[in-house]
Fold these 4 entries.
Entry 1:
Amino acid sequence: MKSKPKKSKKPAPAKSVSLGRVLNQSKKIKKTVKQAASDLTVVNEVLKQGETAKTSPQTIQQAVTQNEGVEQKVTQAADDLNQVNAELARELAERVVIESELAETKNELAEALVDLSQSQANEEEARQIALQDALTGLPNRVLFDQRLEQGLSQAKRHGWGLAVLFIDLDKFKDINDTYGHDMGDKVLLMVADRLQSFVRAEDTVSRWGGDEFACLLLEVKQEAGVIRLAEKMVNRLADPCELNGTVFSIKASIGIAIYPEDGETAEILFKNADTAMYKAKASEKSVMLFRESASD
């Protein structure tokens, strides 16, 4: 994930005034102003009566005093109202700041999620590259070894059979020397495609390197079935294939090792399959089981 420049930490806003308290204060001010308006009405009536000399000086004096008190209330109410307006403005400003920070945080989180997704995609791509053969796209020897270990673990737990086939193309170097490596790559792609057509989804065909391939067969019930499958592979590879106007017929040799009879570890099984393949190459047989080669 790409790193982002650290942003300076913003100072926390002043403690927000409770909006509910401010609104309650505003209601009280309105009530005070309403009461003051009522008091002024009474005072005005008294003062009007004083103009007609029907009201005593004492009553007029009381009205004047009451008027001064009302004016003080009005003045205080005006000050309180200004304070409420200032607090409301500050509350609104703080909320705007908070909403802006929340929006910025949301955008940063969205960017982080995009970066995380891209990082995961890059990681998956790198993992695929590390575990696949660059030319054929088949599992490479690293992934084959992993699957063989997993297959052995399951076979031991469930009492299943398992087979390792090691496949070598005969005289493949002659193709590279005669027609060039580009043509050799096309032949390898054809071989990979034909080998894969014989196995199930849970099985594995791997390019081991150069002109060597390996095959892992899970849940093997009969070794005779494995031998027949290997013979079909040899025959299919030998079927003529035309590439850029040139017809090829590929001869292959296959060695077979079956768990547990031919070994109980990945290393021993693969070594024995390799040994059987070389015995098959040296004999007239194209397919050989390890136990058969060991008895020679």
Entry 2:
Amino acid sequence: MGVSCVRDSTTVSSRPKALVTAPYRGDGMDALRAFADVVYDPWIDQQPLRIYRADDLAARIDAEGADILIVESDQVKGPVFERNLKVIGSCRGDPNNVDIAAATAAGIPILNAPGRNADAVAEMTIALLFAVNRWIVQGDADVRSGQVYAGGSIPYQRYRAWQLAGRTAGVVGLGAVGRATKWRLEGLGMKVLAYDPYNPQATHTDLDAMLPECDVVSMHAVVTPETAGMVGAAQFEAMKPGAIFVNSARAMLHDTDALVAALLSGHLAGAGLDHFVGENLPTDHPLVAMKNVVLTPHTGGATYDVEANQAASITADVQRVLNGEKPLHCVNPEVLG
């Protein structure tokens, strides 16, 4: 590992110094402050938005004299690994903002925080499902616009729905979020199936075999070459007539054009989506005009609890690394010696 700057030994503290640009709070932050000097400057508090490129992040590390780096969204590659860093924490389940190969070559352990947002995203999944199934958004709009008796009808006529209790849900991907969603759906009285070829607790290893049983399909898989576009026209057609599709994971998991077609045909009763390719949906997109579709702007993990969860996980593992112990969550453990 390279050293980018020389520090005056008469002024340098014996404590490590941590630059934290991720949202961080709670017991994890308190614990980090207990053993390190902390510079806390989270990206989420910046207006306009600030996400450091690698050169800018390296310069900030130099300016602060940091030997611990904790990030969430900043670009960690190239010159960052030329700094004298003991450990880097990426507050993500998948630290895709970090060049892992380069970090490994530099001998710097990269910590991650799997499951940090499992409960938050599972709650958003349930919220989307209720909103779609019970016409929550449309009913709210009617009240606010004075259209409760629109067209001479009453809301009870327009917004009837099948209750979720007694129905069958299919969870696609049984990782941390999928598991957190599963027990919540079961708590609603639903029968829950699960497709995940890599989890022995899943009920199905064949997605096409599960879908015909499903009144609700909820997406929780990680985007890989294997899973990208895994739900397309054939899969939507295989779902029960009147099924609801919920994706609180990533839009790349489904074919959006095929989803639009399934909704327009009436085969699907509705959809709830928390993510779009490019993080944005054009206002003239067909989904925007559909009253049976609820759209949220990728806010499933936007809870203060997620910030506390990632702080607790990353801080504990940083301390383990500094103590010469094995961290619980390290994506390149081969550098630990």
Entry 3:
Amino acid sequence: MTAALPGAPAPPETRARRIAAAVLTLALGALGGWLATLVHLPLPWMIGAMVATTIASLSGIRLFVYRWVRGPNVAVLGVMLGSSFTPAVAARFGDWIATIAGLAVYVALVTAILYWYFRRFGHFDRVTAFFAASPGGLNEMVIVGRELGGDDRLIALVHGARILMVVMTIPVGFMLFLDYSPAARPPMGGGLFEISPREALILGGCALAGAFGARAIGFPAAFVTGPMFLSAFAHLVGWSEARPPEILIAVAQVVIGSGVGARFSGVKLYTIARVLLLSLGSTAVMVSLTAVFALVLRRAADTGIEAVVLAYAPGGLAEMSLVALALAIDSAFVASHHVLRIVMIVIVAPALFRRVVLRPPRPPAP
């Protein structure tokens, strides 16, 4: 049998198998996401897709996601993040100077401690340790960490376990002490046909211009940060009040989660169990520091200590905002701090990583 020349088109059988693997991957991811919504998991489409495709990969099934499918869906998530910056939220920023400054300190402290933790006890490489330690969103840390050369499988496992643990423990604490009763998950976006053509053009323009513009100037994680910046600008100046339709956000999470799970082929179950145990320790560190910062900043905030706990808790934006809404706690305060935390990490973390973590060692003194 003649081998294919380097750079030559793949034989039809190989191309057909790749297409079949890609279709199967997204189908399994969508099924896992749907099942996760039935049991009310946090970030159900992302985590459900990741779990389903990870199990399939570990079972020996060949899975695959095309890069050209992944890119546009990453941009959708960037637009969604930017849409959280509304004029009403921005008008209150002046009252939150102390807690926003404290949030920056919290992020830096958590990242430094957990970077050492994952390097020392997990033996992660520097990129993977840094983005596993950074308390950003699951989607964002997987995307940015992968683009900078980290192991997105380990990063996803660490952050996915962290979100699950926090979402399961914080509401229980409020149930025990504040008579909290869980409510239904609010939609992350509107209906597909509820958005006006003008709003759709604006958000679509933010996604396209942001992604390719950021890539052209060499911005890190261009397909998420570029759309996020343009979407934030469009919402702050009042050009748009819409979010991407919920179905597009769900599809984006399925694609990203499926892509992560598809990379677990050949990974041993021992490795997964070890990472989950490491995640338990890192989550305990984060929650402990959240309590400390809430106690210190409770008087500086223009809201109660409960809102500060939720604003600093290392859970997901949607999940912590849901608890705030159900308890009639300042949800704008909580959501804005989570968005700012994600923005701080997505924008600052890559530059900080290159400057501090990848800094070449100083030559020895003569």
Entry 4:
Amino acid sequence: MTELSTRSRWLALYVLCLGDLMIVLDSSIVNVALPSIQTDLGFSPSALAWVVNAYLLTFGGFLLLSGRLGDLLGDKRVFQGGVVSFTVASVACGLAPSSELLVVGRAVQGLGGAAVSAVALALIMGLFSEPAERAKAMGFFGFVMSGGGAVGVLMGGVLTGLFSWHWVFLVNVPIGVAVWLAARRVLPADEPVPRASRLDVVGAGLVTVALMTTVYAIVGGNDAAWTSARTLLLLGLGVLLLAAFVAREATAANPLVPLRLFGLRNVTVSQVVGVLWAAAMFAWFFLAALYLQQVLAYDALEVGLAFVPTSVVMAYCSLRVSDRLVMRFGIRPPLGVGLTLAAVSLALFSRAPVDGRFLTDVLPSMLLLGVGAGIAFNPVLLAAMGDVEPHEAGLASGVVNTSFMMGGALGLAVLVSISTARSDHLLDGGSSQVAALNGGYQAAFAVGAAFALLAAVVGGSLLRPRPMTGDDPHGPATAGEAVGAHP
């Protein structure tokens, strides 16, 4: 990567973070607007889920392919192409006259989002090699990844409440144009790729179809039933395709994902932590918004404003606290403490009553999650990326994002299923509609708390950091303990 001045590196970081924030926002900004979208475009209750699922399906399916394309074609090219695709699709979504066209637009947004997310982290890791700078830069990116969900709910509520649901998509247009123009000027030029490097087309096809099939099975599991022939067949097909992909990668001359990547202890452990953490986080944003709307009867604007404390605290901890903790203590203490605080936050929400009050039943959980997510995300990302060579940074970034996306999709589907089953049981027992809904949310929050706590235990006990040093130019030591080597 072309050597840049300190000022240029930080300008590039801000552009990358803004681009990725636009993508992360889209996973949650639409949630608050769903009732308005359903009314205007005539979605059935079951079809409405595809406004979210179409995005998750293509996003999760194309992350690994996008990351590898970044390594082969250049991260800057893939980033800019993803921004263009996402921005154009946002226009189509915002102006969609029918439910079918909105779902198609969301699928294209997912493709563009996969391209942006898969290479943004790789570009940041290449820009910053000095330990303190890298930790600080990853604090910025960590806020985007973890705080984007809260900011998305806030923006979704404000835009829907003050204007209309169309603006949750159209707001991406000026941001996308600005990011594309700025990226042309501040991102370093792509380096030539050796001619020997080729895309493993068969492997790319196998893993993309496998991931899309698995995500499709997961997001449809609640409606079709988890034990139905349809769900089990799709999950089985996904597993078979993934097995075929692994077999292909073991023998391919230029594999899409070299299997040795998963022999790196910190890479593998961080993927497990990412799956568990994303399962808890996705569910928290989704279920907390539903609790405020359907149990406490908040309108869209009030729901958005309720997430302000989370956004503010998360931003402060990500940008001003996390990097200092990593530099002083390494990754395991802040990782363990942050994820434990997130687990406590979810546990508090699992006790929120039907007649809950914001100051006593909502705000404490909001603040704890802000602190926990704000300090935990930076070390998770550093651990995942630090063991790989620079020329495979795009691939590693795609793997990281895939683990978060798959964990989020799976966790959300499982926890919504738990919530629905509990609510149905309470309704059958004579509970009121609101009480049954609240009981379902409480059960789902409790399981989400267990996911976050398990992530804390796995990360805190299995990651193997090494002492802080800045001698290794490739990364394992340059990010401090957060990117420790294998034992």
